[in-house]
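User: Last request for today: this protein with pyridoxal-5'-phosphate, please.
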Amino acid sequence: MGKYRLICLEGGEFVDDDYRLRCDRHSGLLRAEYDAVRLDVKRMNGVFKFYDWLPVASIIDTDAAPVAFRNTELSRELGLKDLLIAFTGYYPERGAFVRSCSFKEMEALPTMARIRDAKKGTVVVASAGNTGRAFAHISNVVGMNSVIVVPERSADRIWVPDDRGYSKLMTVKGDYADSIAVSERISSMKGFVPEGGARNIARRDGMGTVMLESVISMGKMPDYYFQAVGSGTGAISAWEASMRLVADGRFGTKLPELHLSQNDPFMPMKNAWDDGRRSIEKKDMENAERNISEVYADVLTNRNPPYSPVGGLFDAMTACGGMIYGVTNEEAKAAERLWSEFESAVPDPAASVALASLIKAIGKGTIDKNRTVMLNMTGGGQNLVHKDVTMTRIERFAAVDANVSDDELRRVING
Ligand SMILES: *Cc1c(COP(=O)(O)O)cnc(C)c1O
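Assistant: Here's the final one, the structure of the complex with pyridoxal-5'-phosphate:
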């Protein structure tokens, strides 16, 4: 399409884009190299104002985009001189209209456009939370089909403002891993494609818009970037966006340090990073099931994050510097109470973890309080959106067993 080229970060070769998620020879991530070195923000409301740096030809008409703002009282309370808050959720008072209430919608928007551009089929998403809700919503906005696969017990978590029947909800008996396995089997069938996670450049560059919005609003890059991580995709995206902003030349030359957080007691990436390892090992995830069931922010409990591959989180941390904090449920809830003294949109629990990590960093002296901090509040505003918008729960169209046969699965999905 003559707007970007796709490069394999492991082998360095260019690969043709046809909704590609990996190159044929390597397991590293692919990255888009955009023709536009200088970011020209378009005059429109939604996230496609960053069209130059999104891997799409077409755009989707939307008012959803991240916002960036300051709160001088909260900054003073924290003792920070220069704090910028990025918020992606529903918060009209602050100009934010992300109705699925998290930055996953910034991934869903360009991903759906990229699939449409490549004339690919129905996207398949395994998620019982923010990702599933974001894709269900956007597929109804655009009028493109999607299949959301969730564990039976999470069937009531997928609601949308505008159910036009484009998003189909399938439940799988068993745990989340069973849903992922079934979703992979569906997405390998003819006419279906996986959403691709961190391997999808559209997901990463969509999330990278949070950094773009923040830097454009400040006129400079932050010194520190704070975010709670589950897969680490958001932080990889922040790194990649920062590299593009450095190349742009107007916003500074130093990559922001990544100050990331996981919800204690499930912290595989923190454990591996603290140990100086590129690989996540068994000992980083002991008692995974129990620990996952205990955390406040369950969107942060990814068991298979893109930490090790070339271009993944380990490389991002190595390039930017920084650290990963462990945050307990109590610390996250205390941070949420502090936030709520100053702001009316209730944060997603994961965003509360990020704020708690900032409080921790200040307490421990791991950052200089006089420097510029960007706090990525990755989700919030469910308390507000339900007042303004009538949401419809998506009814499931099929319930299957984890060991459903391929024939049966094909019959169900096409029937
Ligand atoms: C998914 C999610 C995260 C974690 O993002 P990753 O890219 O998976 O690390 C943080 N906050 C919210 C609200 C999320 O939905």
